[in-house]
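To whoever is on call:

I kicked off a structure prediction for a single chain this morning and the downstream step that reads the tokens threw a length-mismatch warning. I double-checked the sequence; it's 190 residues and nothing unusual in it as far as I can see. Pasting both halves so you can look.
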Amino acid sequence: MEESIKSRYQVDHVESGLPRWLIEAAFVCLLAQAAISWSPTMTWMENHARWAIAVIQTFGSLVMYVGLLRGMKPLYRPFCVWWHLIIALNVAGFVVEFPSFIPDALRLAVAISLLLVYLPLGALLTVFYRGRLRQVGLWMALYILVSAIVPVLWFLAGASDSGLPNILVEASTIGVTIVYAWVLRRILVA
């Protein structure tokens, strides 16, 4: 009985049915997303390759989330509605990212919506599961907090774009994205 309960909550791998090469390509895209989040690179890409930012920021996450959606279906709490929301909002983020005529207010609305979905889903995964799936939930919440909220608070505080504090903010953003990518890869690859 105890083993049955433990196996219900302890999830270290989900079988997504996605080919390994697709998961690895998504992992590489998430690493590229971490690399371009550094200010000079991001600024250059926003001015010269906005479409590339949209593809890089969407493809990796989308593949990983579809894999988790498919892999969690047999679990006792698959959170399918939450995964569908995250997937839809990531697609919406792609749609509003690269056309220059899209107003910034719409981009901000999508970003806030993502925040409002990532945090609860991350908390739910952390509360209801153990093992690697719990780590996914924890890092999902940290990822959205560090990559979305910290830079906004940093900007609102009127901090400069240079110096050691700015390097620490950028390093934390890059680091959290890399760890989050690794945790997603580990749950999907046996």
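Update from on-call: the warning came from a stale cache, not from the record. Cleared it. Sanity check on the structure: The mean pLDDT is 86.
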